[in-house]
Design brief:
39% of the residues lie in helices and 24% in strands. It has helices spanning 2-14, 22-29, 33-44, 48-66, 71-77, 83-94, 98-104, 154-161, 165-172, 236-252, and strands spanning 128-133, 136-146, 183-187, 198-207, 216-220, 223-233, 255-257, 262-268, 274-285.
Length: 288
């Protein structure tokens, strides 16, 4: 998987002055667009689209300083329809406009080329199982919240605190299959998975029963799920699990993520500082 991903990175470098379709990158990487975006974001720490933009503006910055072409020629070469749009994007990355950079020879920022490799630590193993589930329904309360990669998600904390405990007790009685009990469900994430983009967040249960009045239902089709478990400090152990799944497990196993909700079952310690967690991710076999 990593070798193919690096081939896709080489393709990006050769086509910075052309349109780059994620579908073509996914074809080179022999995976789906959905999984490529998720894999890249986890490995690189930024969305794929942001990396391409930064690489384009890094190369464009060098051409601005070289003074061989006009600023408009450089702007058009790298996909900007006007000098103003190019100047805005250039300033966002470099902290100065292209005209000023050319006049003063200002120092510019540089996004290095990326290549990926798998580092094997060998200090711990990841516990997982593959589960085939028939159709099921998520039933619970729903909110639209921002995605937060590090630290507590304040919007989710406020949403959950605002739920009447009696409502959760009634919901928990509907739980009739794995993962049992109250779960957190994330769905309809932005493909870029950039920090601050929005997603649907459910606090509810996995059930085959009808949704009671005042709740929201999310129908989930049958499919395979990879189930990961962890224990440790909250929320760090859970966030580390998400990271390790995409940076270690997926590159080492013949599966890729597929479209679908992501389910997290957390059982905190009495003082809330530690937690046992079970993460359910929709997967499918990786095609050769």
């Amino acid at each position: 998987m990593l070798e193919r991903l690096n081939q896709a990175m080489e393709y990006i470098e050769r086509h910075l002055d052309q349109d780059i379709e994620v579908a073509e990158l996914a074809r080179i990487a022999a995976t789906s667009e959905y999984h490529l975006r998720r894999m890249f974001s986890a490995l690189a720490g930024m969305p794929l689209s942001e990396y391409v933009r930064r690489r384009r503006l890094t190369v464009a910055g060098a051409e601005v300083l070289a003074r061989r072409d006009t600023l408009l020629e450089i702007a058009v070469r790298y996909g900007y329809g006007s000098g103003e749009a190019f100047a805005r994007a250039f300033r966002a990355v470099h902290g100065t406009g292209p005209g000023e950079a050319r006049r003063t020879g200002a120092a510019l920022s540089s996004q290095p080329r990326m290549a990926f490799r798998l580092t094997v630590e060998g200090s711990s193993s990841m516990r997982y199982r593959i589960v085939a589930k028939p159709d099921f329904t998520v039933v619970g309360l729903k909110a639209r919240v921002p995605l937060v990669h590090s630290g507590q998600n304040g919007a989710i904390v406020d949403f959950v605190r605002g739920i009447d405990p009696r409502t959760l007790e009634r919901l928990e009685k509907l739980s009739d299959q794995e993962p049992h009990g109250i779960v957190a469900v994330c769905d309809d994430l932005d493909p870029s998975r950039a920090d601050g983009t929005e997603l649907d967040y459910y606090q509810g249960v996995i059930t085959s029963m009808a949704a009671p009045e005042g709740t929201t239902a999310l129908a989930v089709p049958a499919g395979a799920w990879a189930v990961f478990t962890t224990s440790g400090p909250a929320p760090q152990a859970i966030q580390d699990l998400w990271r390790d799944v995409f940076t270690e497990w997926f590159p080492s196993n013949p599966y890729r993520s597929r479209t679908g909700p992501e389910i997290l079952r957390v059982r905190p310690s009495p003082d809330g500082t530690e937690a046992d967690a079970e993460l359910w991710l929709p997967v499918e076999p990786e095609r050769g």
